[in-house]
Structures are given as structure tokens and as C-alpha cells.
Amino acid sequence: MTDQNASGLSAGQSSKTTIVPVILSGGSGTRLWPMSRASFPKQLWPLLSAQSLLQETAVRAKTVTLSAPIVVCNEEHRFLIAEQLREAGIDSPKILLEPIGRNSAPAIAAAALIVAQTDPSAVLWLMAADAAITKPEALGEAMQAAVAGAEAGKVVTFGMKPTRPETGYGYIEVGATVPGVAGVCAVKAFREKPDAQQAEDFLKTGGYLWNSGMFVFRADTLIREMEEHAPDVIESVRAAVTARKSDLFFERLGSEEFRKVPDISIDYAVAERSHNVVVVPVDLGWSDVGSWDALWDISAKDGEGNVEVGDVLIEDCHNSYVRSEKYLTAVAGLDDVVVVTTDDAVLVTHRDRAQDVKKVVERLKAHKRPEAATHNRCYRPWGFYESLIQNDRFQVKRIVVQPGQKLSLQKHFHRAEHWVVVGGVALVTRDDDKVLVRENESIYLPQGCVHRMENPGKIPLTLIEVQTGAYLGEDDIVRLEDTYNRA
Q1: Where is the Mannose-6-phosphate isomerase type II C-terminal domain (predicted)?
Q2: How confident is the model at residue 13 (pLDDT cuts 50, 70, 90)?
Q3: Is residue 278 classed as helix, strand or coil in its secondary structure?
């Protein structure tokens, strides 16, 4: 292996190659319910360490390249993602907002088109925000091979060495080594997710790798491939990129234009149609963390094969995953189970049936249960709130506002509010007055008054809000002014 700099690439490559990480953060991860939900999906949770999967991905990318990442996400998560990147020490990321989810191919095309405007020869390193790598030491050499393949004009994917007959992943059938590009092989075929017998055969036969969905390619190469194999996608995305607008520190793709883009993955749009795709076989300890069983598989275990996270007590259990986000969770006399408790839901399933969690979420959606998509704690760009008590005509919430942040100037038609400050200081606008409310003080906001809360201090503002009225829904908010450009 050649000498490497801190990025993991050889000195020759690092001096001439610009590598731009592109992180896709659009999934909802329903198979990791009740933690992962549409409002706060799995990539934003710290599932394997103190950092979220998104943060781990961004930090990993930072060790390979000095370029700021492009993160493609939806509008709902934009402030959460910006804050998590800031906490992880990621400087000046470009956060690209999709007005609607259109799968991976349009997201990748948008990133490639934007990068190509300044450097068509730049190499893009595409990865999902919600995958885990437990052997990062192998990444440097794999990236060397992938970058070499990309510079040779190839679309390079990473094929992960399988460790079990997994039916939840697609597979890559590996061909011969590509002449002149060490560590890179031809792709014979992409295989759909197999049944159990096929997966066993793939593992026994050899020559098959898990399809990680991680790609490396030059921006101009990807654009040419899409012009050939998915022209309708690239043209619609080009229009959305041209119409994009800046919003605070985000870039919004043109909404009307992007809604016309076909919904298609990069696998179907390019990888399975092109003869220019190659693969780097590698063992990174990769997982898409797509189910509780997969999370158990890559997590540190005790001597009985159990994974315990949070306030958990286990008695005579084996090979189980038990996690609590709030309450004491005790499990006794069970093997091969998953038990997950949050503040509003409990999941219990056999590990072998972990894929069925998605069916649970589908039933919750069919019954219009809010737990299918939202958590009790709801994050906002200014902080968060959570419901403590709710009844027909009143609701009690805890609200936390970060230093220097403020809520929108707003009013309600159907409810009044009483705010009690229990930590920090609140500067409250109430119609024409501005009132400083300190700890252990309160203020009443009658129905229909124009009001705003802000935190002028240096510590988080915490207050208890008591709402009373005939209707307490979150849609009873008329925003008159908003720092964060929300509707």
C-alpha cells in the first residue's frame, strides 16, 4: 500500500483529486420503530455511539477528504441536520433541500450538477446517512481503489463481504479484475433481494457481495451516464437545480420543477443499465442498520449475547436486544427477543421477526395513529416541546428554547396559554408589550392575542405551558413573522 496522508488517499491522488462527500438523508427507517419515525428518523439517533448515524457518517467522510459535504435532505429535518453537523464539527456543509422525496437518483443527480458547475472532474463519494461501518481502518485503501476507478471514467460501487445469508440486501455478482485499476472488479450482475435459499447459495458459492449503495464517480461521468440511461430524470433535475434558491444556510431545489422528476433509485436509473459500473470488494463491517436484528448484530454484547441500552434490567435472557429511552425496562427469561421502550410506545418482537416491524407501522398508519410518524417530543429550529398531559380542553407541555432563539410571532383562534418559567429567562411579546419573565414567574396569553417567546439569555429557557380551549391542535397557529422562514 502506498504512503497515505490523513485522508487515507495516496499523496499523488490527494494533490490532484477533489473528493466531495454526498450524504443522502431522506429515509424514515420504519423497521426501527418506535425510535425511528418520519419526524425523527434513524439517521438522527445515536444508535451505536454518542453520535448519531448522520454524525458518524459526516465525521467518517471528513477523515477521507477535506471538502465540505453536500447533504441532501427534506425540508422537515433541515434544522435538525444543520445542528447535528455543527455539533459534530463539520464546517460549512452545503445542505440541499428536496421539496418532495424522489428516491436516490434525483438526489444524486442534483449534487452532481451543482458540483459540475465549478469542477466537472471532481469525484463524488455518495453514501447514505443511516449506514454503519465498524471497520473504518479498511476504508482508506478501498477509497484509493474507488477514486482510481472514478478517475478512469467508471461508476464505482462498494460491494461488502457478506457474513450471513442476508435476505434484506441486494447482491452484486463479481466479475474479473479490471485491468490497470488495482482492487476494482467488473460487475457481472446486480441481484435483487433473494429468498432464504438463494441467500444461502450466494454465501456458499462465493463471488457475491452485498450491495451497499455507496458509490464513487466523477461528476461529469454521472451526468453522462444519466443522460444516456435516464434522460428524463437528469433534465427534470437540471431544471430544479437551475431554479434553486438560497434560504438562510440552505439551498432549496425548485419546487415545481422537482415535483416533475421521476421517482427512481440510482440502481435502477444507472447501475443496472450501464456497462460502465465496477465494484470494489471490501470488508468494512458495513450494515444498513435496517432492522433491530441488524442493530443487534453489530452492537457490543455481554457474555450472554445481550445488548442493553438505557435503564434496562435483564434476568436470564440470551441473544436479545433491550433498549429503553425513558422508563426502567425489565426483561426476564426470554431469548432472541427485541424489546424497545420510548415515552409513548413499546415494541416486543422475536429477533427473527424484526422485519415485520414495518407491518406494525403500516397498521398504525391505517388507523391514523400519530405514533406511526411522530414522537411525543417534537423538535423545532428554536429547541423542542413535549406534551406532559393532554385532555379534551387542556394540555400541559414542556418547552425548551435554546439561547438566542425565538419562536414565531403568532396567534391562536381557539386557545389561551399560560406560561410558567422554570429555568432561564423569557422575553415575551404580548400584543404591544414586551415583558421579561424570570424563573418562577408566569404570564397569561389570552385567546387571540399576538405573542412571541424568545430566549435572550445564555442558558436554555425551560417553561411549562398550559393550554386551554375548545381546540388544541398544532395547526391552530397563525404565523405573522418567523425567523426561520416557515410558512
Answers
A1: 369-482
A2: very low
A3: strand
